[in-house]
């Protein structure tokens, strides 16, 4: 690789970051096992999923609303960026050996050239062929992970259950092809062992653990506790900071004592898919919950010492539900009295052309919103909720299209 200035090698507690200066700057990030994770190159951001896909992203701010462009790379482009990352690591290794590299050391202790060399050697070996082999290993450890909340993208997923036990909300296709099942204890123990072996030193990049998939918390406490014990033994660095989705329609039956017990075992935050505060829209979506149940569950969780993450959707229910959806959703958020540590995510809904949602919408004469209208509604929900949130609660946009694990 032709460089116009020696590379910078940043050895961080959780990752290795290499900056190369080849005309324009490019930055590559790896976990401590050498796995290529992300790159900033040519004014584009690339992120590699553990399943081997690479997404490329940039934002166009020239229009009325910012437009995010994201695409998954074809095989050749995927191999090119992965090999470029491995090449950057190789060039950084040469520079480390000949003493020209700039080293930034933020691991505990004094800078350790041997450790930096190990990180760089592992990253230099992670070329396109190694990445493909790694993706195959990943597929033997996990069922596909279709979604996580944005603040949990770097969590370690542990699949206590697989799928969603309801799986009939019209707008949701995350788990359609996957029957719901609870992993038996011995299988869960093997799953944890396989996770440890797969990530290796790369575990340092993972903050806390996420109990997958859609509703692991429907397990009674008596079934969850032994699984949490196994998790604490297998992955102690992650087990103290747990999070999970909870479905409102079974979750609202959990009482304060039950949730306080889970909190004491490390469950710090639960995420509720409120979607809308309008019960009629929820019925239209075939989501079997009411706003009142969601409000009750949020209060119970907060009283039990947990933080909550609430997810609502902008644009869902099209033109017919627009105003009542916004009003009822903001009213539900106000009634939840969210405070310090709580999060509200507003996710843009892209109406599908076919499937259960589209069929129901056509039958009811519900027209989908345009992309700009969805953004307008998102602005209404974001600005309206700012006034509805208590001190320390935050609202953010949630782009589910760009999720990768
Ligand atoms: S409960 Fe959640 S995961 Fe299950 S179908 Fe509905 S939206 Fe999807």
Could you say which overall geometry the principal axes of the C-alpha atoms support?
globular
Across the major sheet, the strand order is 7-6-5-4-3-2-1-8
Low-confidence stretches: none
CATH homologous superfamily descriptor of the largest domain: tm_1862 like domain
Roughly how many Å apart are the termini?
30 Å
Describe the structure.
With 405 residues, this protein is an alpha/beta fold. The chain is 40% helix and 23% strand. It contains 13 helices and 17 strands. A hairpin with a 6-residue loop joins strand 6 and strand 7. Helix 4 (185-199) runs parallel beside helix 5 and helix 10 (291-303) packs parallel to helix 11 (318-336). Iron/sulfur cluster (SF4) binds next to loops. Residues 164, 166-167, 169, 172, 174-175, 214, 247, 273, 287 line the site of iron/sulfur cluster.
Give a quick summary of the entry.
This protein has 405 residues and is α/β, with parallel strands linked by helices.
Spell out the key features of this protein:
405 residues, 7-stranded parallel β-sheet, pyruvate-formate lyase- activating enzyme, single chain, 23% strand, alpha/beta, 2 domains, binds iron/sulfur cluster, 17 strands
Can you lay out the helices and strands and say which pair or pack?
Layout: E1 5-11, E2 16-22, E3 24-30, E4 36-41, E5 44-48, E6 54-60, E7 67-72, H1 75-97, E8 102-105, H2 113-125, H3 128-141, E9 156-159, E10 161-162, E11 181-182, H4 185-199, E12 209-212, H5 221-234, H6 236-239, E13 242-246, H7 248-251, H8 256-264, E14 267-275, H9 279-284, H10 291-303, E15 307-314, H11 318-336, E16 343-348, H12 356-364, H13 371-388, E17 394-398
Helix pairs in contact: 1-2, 4-5, 10-11, 11-13
Iron/sulfur cluster binds at residues 164, 166-167, 169, 172, 174-175, 214, 247, 273, 287.
